[in-house]
Amino acid sequence: MKKHYDFIVVGGGSAGCVLANRLSLNPKNEVLVLEAGRSDYRFDFRLHMPAALTYPLASRLYNWWYESDPEPYMNNRRVYQPRGKVLGGSSCINGMIYIRGNALDYQKWAGSPGLENWDYAHCLPYFIRFESRLKGADAFHGAGGPLYLTSGECDNPLFGAFLKAVQEAGYPLTRDVNGYRQEGFGIFDRTTYRGRRWSASRAYYHPVKHRANLTLKTRSLASRILFEGKRAVGVEYFRGKRRERVYGREILCCGGAINSPHLLQLSGIGNAAELEKLGIRVIEDLPGVGENLQDHLEVYVQYACKKPVSIYPALKPWNQLRIGYEWLFKRKGLGATNHFEAGGFIRSNDSVAYPNLQYHFLPIAIRYDGKVANQSHGYQVHVGPMNTDVRGRIKIRSTDPTIYPSIRFNYLSTEQERREWVEAIRCTRNIMTRPAFDSFRGPELAPGTEAQSDEEILDFIAKEGESAYHPSCTCKMGENDETAVVDSRLKVRGVKGLRVVDASAMPTITNGNIYAPVMMIAEKAADEILGNTPLPALDIGFYRHRKEDGPKTASAPAAPETEAPPSAAASADDLDRKKAVG
Question: Mean per-residue pLDDT for 8-16?
């Protein structure tokens, strides 16, 4: 086997697939991808049927199946955290909801010294570059990239009731939560194409896997990064019980928010005192490795449905056979959608500058593991705070790379998070009890009418809250920041030849699902690694809440607003700039 490469990508997940594609475009670059999991075999319907998403989420075959330590503010429960252990990573097991985050998330990043080139204007061109939105390009979206985006059809009557109810509650509709205005409710974009999940591996790796300079090794678990002095020179990994080593000019960690800090710690980069206790030779004392862990916690607010219009019958075995046939041979029907087709973002109080709650609506009452709330028709919304001030950590426990690290999220540990959770449930009930749902709404199944006081609501969250599967920020980016792990170019501080390119590099978590931001980070990193001229900034403006619009609180929702017309968001000059980067 070849032993020397220009680039070694550790982790064939979302970011890793982007780098594999972009770095191997130049035939002079020899690129190796090491992936601990199996390949995303085309015949495996559990990975490729959108509606089958519960299978990979509940199977050790495709994910690492992490659990947190007992969470002290969650009744000492261990909270399940699936991460993709397959080519394509978590893009093969996620809910396929495409959310970029709020523009002000990136303004927040750029507010840190040295991160000015991570503002929204500098990130937007990279989102546009990798998109192929089937609705067509506009000032905010691309149509020629490798990642296909489709929009939900929302043909179930419960979606219509939901979108009417949010307006009755005083919240606006928005044409595009990834466009000029995130705040409001509307139809979500999804990472599906022709009725199939369109993962990072399908978008980026498979179209170029024939390249002679691109090598993939699956079932290869990285055990440590090899150093000569302060320079990373290779990777040691296990394939089965056999230990092997490969060497590269640059090592790129793309393992995600849990695996990347763990690999750095195994390799001698982290809190020196803690590494020395385990007998690990310290390469660089970086106390921030594994710290700053952020995630989104969520719950389901569920109702029984009085009319037989939910998709509950799809759970019946005889119906699943029909659904499977339609999907396999026609690529349509209930199997061809993730069912999270609509949702939105709101502010739960008037003190926040931009939305702090996210909603997903689902026309069935069911958990991620496939368990239904009651054996009948129902519907639900997923809701949770976005701009959390909770911080957790990832900590190495053993020099054995197969021993999982200690994970603590510290959910519900701050006053802000607890306050916003109470607001979240009250805002949700304000929406779900509107007249639009009167003909459908049966009893509230969760939290249930017994959860009314702040204490009762928080007790429900502690018992039933689940991760939204968005771990991030454990190798945070920063300059002149002692807690930062990587600099603005994603280079690990204090060493050479090593970068971290994945969700762990985020300084703070973004608003909503994090898959799209991870792809943007990887696209931006690819240009940086190759020394390409960065795409020019695209400063076309974005929606900012105005105080005169009125509060969006649980107690006093404002009157519906009208979204700014396209002309207010993008001029002809802006469109020309978009074409220049497309």
Answer: 98
Q: How far apart are CA 328 and CA 304, in angstroms?
A: 31
Interatomic CA distance for residues 251 and 272, integer angstroms:
22
Scanning the structure block, which residue is given the tokens 């007249």? 435
pLDDT in tens, 260-295: 999 999 999 999 999 999 999 999 999 999 999 999
Question: In the predicted model, what is the mean pLDDT of residues 224-251?
Answer: 97
- The partner residues of 312 in beta bridges, in order of sequence, read none
Of 122, 262, 382, 470, which residue is the catalytic one? 470
- Mark out the alpha helices in 186-255 (DSSP H runs): 200
Determine the straight-line distance between the first and last CA of the chain, rounded to whole angstroms.
39
Write out the DSSP string of 462-493.
HHH-EE-S--B-TT-B-SS-TT-SB-TT-BBT
Closest by Cα among 44, 80, 77, 49 to 62: 44
Per-residue confidence (pLDDT) for residue 2, from 0 to 100 = 77
In 3D space, the residue among 404, 408, 443, 512 whose CA is nearest the CA of residue 60 turns out to be 404
Specify the higher pLDDT residue, 370 or 334.
334
Does residue 1 carry a pLDDT above 70? no
Say if CB 232 and CB 496 are below 8 A apart: yes
Per-residue pLDDT, 570? 36
Residue among 79, 134, 130 nearest 100 (CA):
130
Express as a percent the part of the chain with pLDDT over 90.
90
Of the candidates 512, 432, 507, the one whose C-alpha atom is nearest the C-alpha of residue 475 is: 507
**Distance in angstroms (rounded) separating the CA atoms of residues 191 and 93:** 12
pLDDT at 522 over 70: yes
Token duo for residue 372: 């239904």
Helix 120-130, helix 103-110: angle, nearest 10: 130
Provide the whole-model pTM.
0.94
Q: Tell me the residue type at 337.
A: T
Q: What is d(CA 460, CA 454) in angstroms, rounded to the nearest whole number?
A: 10
Tell me the Ramachandran region of residue 494: left when phi exceeds 0, alpha when psi lies from -120 to 50, beta otherwise. Answer: left
- Residue 185 gets which letter from DSSP? E
Q: What is the pLDDT of residues 540-565, one digit of tens each?
A: 999 998 765 544 444 334 333 434 43
Q: 206 an active-site residue?
A: no
Q: Which helix (H) or strand (E) holds 273?
A: helix 272-277
DSSP 22-75: HHTTSTT--EEEE-SSB---TT-HHHH-GGGTHHHHT-TTTB--EEPSPBTTTT
pLDDT digits (tens, 9 = 90+) for 427-459: 999 999 999 999 999 999 999 999 999 999 999
Q: For 394-482, where are the alpha helices, taking DSSP H only?
A: 415-432, 454-464
Q: From 267, 268, 266, 260, select the one nearest 291 (Cα to Cα).
A: 260
